[in-house]
Design goal:
Blueprint: H1 2-24, H2 29-35, E1 54-58, H3 79-87, E2 90-97, E3 100-106, E4 116-117, H4 121-135, H5 163-167, H6 185-191, H7 195-199, H8 217-230, H9 234-243, E5 252-256, E6 269-271, H10 273-284, E7 288-289, E8 292-293, H11 297-303, E9 329-333, E10 336-343, E11 347-352, E12 357-363, E13 370-371, E14 374-375, H12 376-389
Antiparallel strand pairs: 1-5, 2-3, 2-12, 4-6, 5-6, 7-8, 9-10, 10-11, 11-12, 13-14
Helix pairs in contact: 2-6, 4-8, 4-9
């Protein structure tokens, strides 16, 4: 019994020292992260982790239910397609054609009212807000200097940093994007309580505009600019200018770093699959819905234009980036171009203007393999959507 007591006392002492060390070294975010991952049997952030965070509410106060196509769900997924959804743990697969819902299927723990984490799809939402702020005169243009809103970038190479550099992921700021490093910036940004302070520890170390590296820290700076330019939180501005204007049916939520804090704008937006389809419809129509211009078509056109900045990411190809615009991904499958926003675990909203088609796929995993910078599972979902509409 004495040996057991000594062991338990020693274990508690080690744990206490470890916890103290995390706080002393500024890594207490690891403790916050454990409760929403390993302590509930997960090895990484989950698409249904909203309950573990402080969130803001984005009201859907002008709902417009999707009209159902006359062909709604008349086609079904074949055995091979269902196996693929099972392999990648899909939760939702929806296809919209000509502004109507044509196909809808949910899997496993997904359903019509399930709110899934966007992960990096949220980056594209921030781009929309930047465009709207320019349209409303809060921001002069994408070429306005970042230091006009964030004075910490008023010296050195930071003097040349513009909003466009942030939009195109060419800021020259070495944030790092490793989700496997518990002590890295992304872990602190996702699980931490001081998003702005953590972000502003970084500075521009290489000339802006000369190298493309995909890093969420750029989006955090864009979110700060939106808030400081408009005088509103990103949640408030997104609600007023987008969520309440595009016919969403359900409230959405955005992960905050602390109560009444800043949105983790690079991730952590929670909404339903049908409402993500409303974002896709906005993409298809270049920002114009009926008689309402939700956002300037000119800005949308810019957003979907390849940045063509040299890829200098750690495993980069060194070629000019043709697959990324203003926080939107670009691609082509079977000769048909498309735009998309996408997230870490295979969250996709894909718009194919030439077919007037929107595809939403949500799930727990995605393929690590890429073809021309497109996840190979996304290619399969796009072909699946095309088959359903044919």
């Amino acid at each position: 019994m004495r040996i057991l007591k000594r062991f338990l006392f020693g274990l508690l002492a080690v744990l206490a020292i470890a916890v103290a060390a995390l706080y002393i070294t500024g890594n207490e975010h690891i403790l916050y992260g454990l409760r929403s991952t390993y302590l509930i049997g997960k090895s990484k952030p989950d698409i249904y982790d909203m309950e573990y965070f402080n969130v803001s509410t984005i009201k859907a106060d002008k709902p417009e239910p999707w009209p159902l196509s006359k062909e709604f769900n008349k086609k079904t997924l074949n055995a091979e397609e269902l196996a693929l959804h099972n392999q990648y743990e899909s939760t939702a697969f929806l296809v919209f054609k000509n502004d109507s819902l044509l196909f809808e299927q949910y899997f496993a723990d997904g359903n019509e009212k399930a709110r899934s984490n966007t992960f990096s799809m949220a980056k594209s939402f921030v781009s929309l807000m930047i465009g709207k702020a320019i349209e409303e005169g809060y921001i002069k243009s994408v070429n306005q200097k970042v230091s006009d809103f964030i004075p910490e970038f008023d010296k050195g190479l930071g003097e040349d940093l513009t909003i466009k550099h942030l939009l195109q992921m060419s800021s020259g700021i070495p944030f790092g994007e490793s989700y496997g490093n518990p002590f890295g910036f992304m872990a602190k940004a996702y699980f931490g309580k001081n998003l702005i302070d953590e972000t502003l520890q970084f500075s521009v170390t290489s000339a802006p505009g000369e190298g493309w590296i995909y890093e969420g820290g750029n989006t955090i700076l864009l979110g700060m600019i939106v808030s400081r330019a408009t005088g509103r939180s990103c949640s408030e501005y997104f609600h007023q200018k987008f969520w309440s204007c595009i016919g969403t049916e359900d409230d959405a939520y955005w992960n905050l770093d602390k109560p009444d804090g800043m949105e983790k704008v690079f991730s952590g937006f929670y909404a339903t699959a049908r409402d993500y389809g409303k974002i896709g419809r906005l993409m298809i129509h270049q920002g114009v819905l009926g008689n309402d211009t939700v956002i300037s078509p000119a800005y949308m056109k810019e957003s979907f234009t390849p940045c063509m900045v040299k890829d200098v990411s750690p495993k980069g190809s060194g070629e000019n980036c043709y697959w990324y615009g203003y926080q939107w991904w670009l691609g082509e499958v079977d000769g048909i171009p498309f735009y998309n926003c996408r997230g870490l675990r295979g969250q996709y909203v894909v718009a194919i203007p030439s077919l007037n088609l929107v595809m939403v796929r949500l799930g727990h995993t995605q393929s690590p393999e890429r073809e021309r910078h497109i996840p190979v599972d996304m290619i399969e979902w796009i072909r699946m959507a095309k088959r359903i509409t044919s």
